[in-house]
Structures are given as C-alpha cells and as structure tokens.
Amino acid sequence: MRRALPAVTIIAALALAVSACGGDGGGTAAPARSVADPTKITGEVTWWDTTRPDSEGPVFRALIGKFQAAYPGIKVNYVNVPFEQAQNQFQTAAQAGTGAPDVIRAEVAWTPQFASLGYLQPLEGTRALDGTEGDFLPGPLSSTKYGGRTWAVPQVTDSLALVYNKRLLREAGHDGPPATMEELKTFALDVKEKTGAEGLALNVDSYFLLPFIYGEGGDLLDVAARKIVVNSPANVRAMTTVAGLVSSGAAARPAVQDSYVNAMTAIKEGKAAMIFNGPWALSELYQGAEFTDKENLGIAPVPRGSARAGAPTGGHNLAVYAGSKNLDASYEFVRFMTSTESLAEMSAGLGLLPPRLSAFDRPEVRARADVGVFKPIMETAVPRPWIPEGGQLFQPLLEGYQALLSGKETPEAMVAAVDRKYRDIFKGWS
Q1: Any idea what the Cα angle at residue 246 is, between residues 307 and 420, rounded to 5°?
Q2: Contact between residue 94 and residue 119 where contact means Cβ atoms under 8 Å apart
Q3: What beta strand segments (E) does 56-144 contain?
Q4: Cα(87)–Cα(94) distance, rounded to whole angstroms?
Q5: What is the Cα 272 distance to its own chain's centre?
Q6: Residue ranges of the domains in the chain?
Q7: Coil/strand/helix, residue 180
Q8: How many CB atoms lie within 10 A of CB 392?
Q9: Three-state DSSP class for 172?
Q10: Helices 57-70 and 327-337 meet at what angle, rounded to 10?
Q11: Is CB count within 10 Å lower at the N or C end of the chain?
C-alpha cells in the first residue's frame, strides 16, 4: 500500500541529509569473494518487510521457508513493519547504530536517501547481484543507483492504473474504460446518474496525484537544470482537472485522512466504479464482494491528459544495512529473494510486478492477465528523481492536495504554495 510519508520523517531526513558526509554515502564495499558452496554460509538475517501482513505477508513468509531449507545455516528473523513507519524507524535505528535490520524493504525513494546518509552497504561485486543487473528492467534498476554505486536490488516495481468495476460501467452504458481525463469525468457522472454509485473515488496522496500532473505535461523538478518546475501552467491545468472532478460530482468528495482505505472499501463493495491504484492492491481487491468473480475487475492505463497518459514509477528495493554483522548471509538472502524464481512466485501469488525481464517469461507469471496489463504501463511510466531529497517532495505536495480538495486553495495558489516549500528544501535551485 502506498501512503504519504509522515511529516516527522521528512523533517528528520532533511536534517540528516544536511549533516551527512559526502555524496557517495558512508558505506564501505565488502571485498568481492568467491563462495565455493553458498549453502554453507552461516549467520542470522533480520528482514524488515513492509507489505500487508494479511494479504501479502504469507507469500513472503513462504519464500523465507524455502530459503531456510536451501540455506540451513542461515536463520531469518522476519519482522513486518508498517510501511508508513518503516522509513523513520530504520533511519532512527541506523543513526543510533542499534536495532536496524540486516535487510530492509525500502521504497524506491528511500534508497538514494539512505545511501547518502551512509546507512547502506554498496552491493557491486557481491553475491546480492553477482552479474545479474542486465536482467532487471531499466526503470527499477535506476532507483538502486546513487553516486555511481549500487545500493540495493529491485524487489518489486509498480505504477498506477485505472481500476474499474466492469458491471457498473456497463450499467452506465459504457463497454470499456475511459481513455482520457475528459472521458473519465463523463463516465463517472454517467455511473452516478444511472447506478447511484459514485463514479470515481480519489485517494488524497501525492503519488496518486502524479498521473494528473504528468498527463498535462507537468513535473515537479528538472534535476538536470537544478530547477523547481512545480509552479507551471501545466500543473495548474492538472489541479483544475482534479478539483473539477470533485466539484462536478464525478468524484466523491474524499476525506483527507484515510482516503486510501475509503476508496478501496468503496470499490470493493460496489459503492464506487473507478479508482486509481497499483498492482499491490490486486490481492486485496479480489477479496471484495464485487470481485469474487475476478472477471468483473477491469484494469486499464490511467486516462490521458492533454499531453499524454502519465503514470509514475514506483516500487521497492531490498537493501543491506551498512552496519550488518551478517553481510554474507544478507547478500545471499537478497540474492534469493530477488531471483527469477522467487519474483515469479511473488508475482503469481500476489499480482505484483517483477522487476526482472526473465520473471515475466515464466509460465506462472504469463498466466496472470492482470500482471500482463501492467507491463506496457511500466514501459511508458515516468521515472521519479532518484536523489536523496526525492522523498521530501511528497509531503508539500500532499499538503497542497489536501488544501485544494478542501477548498482552501485554488489551483494557482496550491502550486505556488508547493513551490515555496520546495525552495526551502532545494536551496540554490532556480
């Protein structure tokens, strides 16, 4: 599940980034060495997993069981940490030098941040990768790089799609999903008028706002030019589109808190016809009464804005803590959990997108039509800036999104306010 980062985390991240030494991170690469029989490696690995413990956790615990059977000398301590708490908890533990896990499932934006602070172990030349980088999709792989080094291995990639209830759209007179933002509004109003259900449920979260921004040709930063570009006519158009969906009744007016849960509940119970969401939500969606028949769940690319259809790039990496006392065991665990076989089992069981090309060729993955729908979306997904401050982009954008939908700010005032907050983060940028 994707949620906004806690404000306290953003503040702490900024303070630590300022005090960090050097741009390459503080980790020292362990010397590459040949392991004659990896199954003889011994040690203890604590892994912080951030997936949903009820719908996703069982698949990863099953993979851990297979790992321990193959590596009897390595004990894995599985700890499920809520996603919205993991970043701050890891940062606090790593800074204190005690309590951090050997391996963490890190959201893609966390990887360059943790690396810049010296909290991660560089992985080039270790068995965590062992020459397999060419098999990873370029987008997810790029999120593991910082300062010319590799700090993690992609575990899952994701983006956003339009998820819809086929039955409700048919009852509203539409045999397929909307292709444009204008059609999205029309289809949603038709659903409300003809079925009584809400047409669209919005999640008030920065990540879920990005398709509107990218769809109008907007962005947040121009990293190469060191320029803040959030206050632009394109982004004003994007915010006008979002506000118009709510004011017209096409989208239900969302609560600014718990909107993700509310949107998921609404679509699972047939109270809303459409939401934006990603592959991580599939296992939960299929538990809903409306999708007992999986064929009733539709998945399509996010509708196009005036410029393009622009979904964001997301996902998670597995990273090794620089202070781990069990590096060899940690490298082997990361290698196993990101292998083609493990990623294919993950994808087949949960519908998550594997970041390895070879995993998509496995028959159990090809059998999942819902995974196949997301693959072309990933090919056109817009990459986010993989910089240490990347995670700090979301809180100001979230606050602006909340103010916009609460009617406290106009689209113009909203992007101007976000721009001012970004300038406090990116000193010296134009």
Answers
A1: 65
A2: yes
A3: 74-80, 103-107
A4: 11
A5: 23
A6: 7-158+313-379, 161-312+389-425
A7: strand
A8: 23
A9: coil
A10: 120
A11: C
Asked if 215 and 304 count as a contact pair (C-beta separation under 8 A), the reply is yes
Token reading at 261: 């849960």
In the CATH hierarchy, which fold is given to the domain comprising 7-158+313-379?
D-Maltodextrin-Binding Protein; domain 2 (3.40.190)
What confidence category does residue 34 fall into, taking pLDDT thresholds of 50, 70 and 90? low
Span 276-286, pLDDT tens digits: 999 989 889 99
- What tokens does 121 get? 């172990």
Whole-number Å distance between alpha carbons of 132 and 347: 19
Pick the CATH number of 161-312+389-425 from 3.40.190.10, 3.40.710.10, 1.10.530.10, 3.20.20.70: 3.40.190.10
Q: Please, how many CA atoms are within 13 Å of residue 271, restricted to the half-sphere of its CB?
A: 11
pLDDT digits (tens, 9 = 90+) for 218-270: 999 999 999 999 999 999 999 999 999 999 999 999 988 889 999 999 999 99
391/413 Cα distance (integer angstroms):
23
- Cross-strand pairs, 356: 136
